[in-house]
Amino acid sequence: MLGVATSAALDRNTSLWRYMSLDKLVDLLSTSELHFTPLASFAKSDPFEGFLPAVALQADAALLRPFVQNVERAFELTKEQRKKAGLRLTDEETAVIQRNLEALRRDPGLYHVSMAKADLLPKIRT
């Protein structure tokens, strides 16, 4: 059986209200198990279920912009080190890295694709 980790700040005596049909209540009482509908079930009725609000993604993107600059600098240092070692990046490797950096410059939130429905976000091309 799976457990749920909770924050120490969460009071275990706080009531959690969940509205359900009578048949689900009877099932809960007889099995002592909660049923959670899979997110995919909401695709037609509520296609935005499970999304983070746009304001949260924008705030993350603002926080990640300095990280993107560090990634750009790391790419330049990698190119320099490989050149010194006689291991130049191929044109294909360089193109893939450049496309990914350009995508990150446009939208640093791409680092958080896993936080939203990936099929609706622009993808980093490889």
Please provide a brief summary of the model.
The chain has about 130 residues and is an all-alpha fold. The protein is about 45% helix and about 0% strand.
Can you put this structure into words, describing what you see?
The chain is mainly α and 126 residues long. It is 45% helix and 0% strand. The chain contains 3 helices and no strands. α2 runs antiparallel to α3. The longest helix has 31 residues. It is elongated, with a radius of gyration of 23 Å. The C terminus is likely disordered.
Count, helices: 3
The end-to-end distance, rounded to whole angstroms, is 39 Å
Q: How many DSSP-defined strands?
A: 0
Structural class by SSE content: mainly alpha
The helicity comes to: 40-55%
User: What overall geometry do the principal axes of the alpha carbons give?
Assistant: elongated
Largest sheet: number of strands, sense, barrel closure: none
Indicate the mean pLDDT.
76
Radius of gyration from CA coordinates:
23 Å
Low-confidence runs of at least 5 consecutive residues? 114-126
Strand content: under 5%
Order of helices and strands: HHH
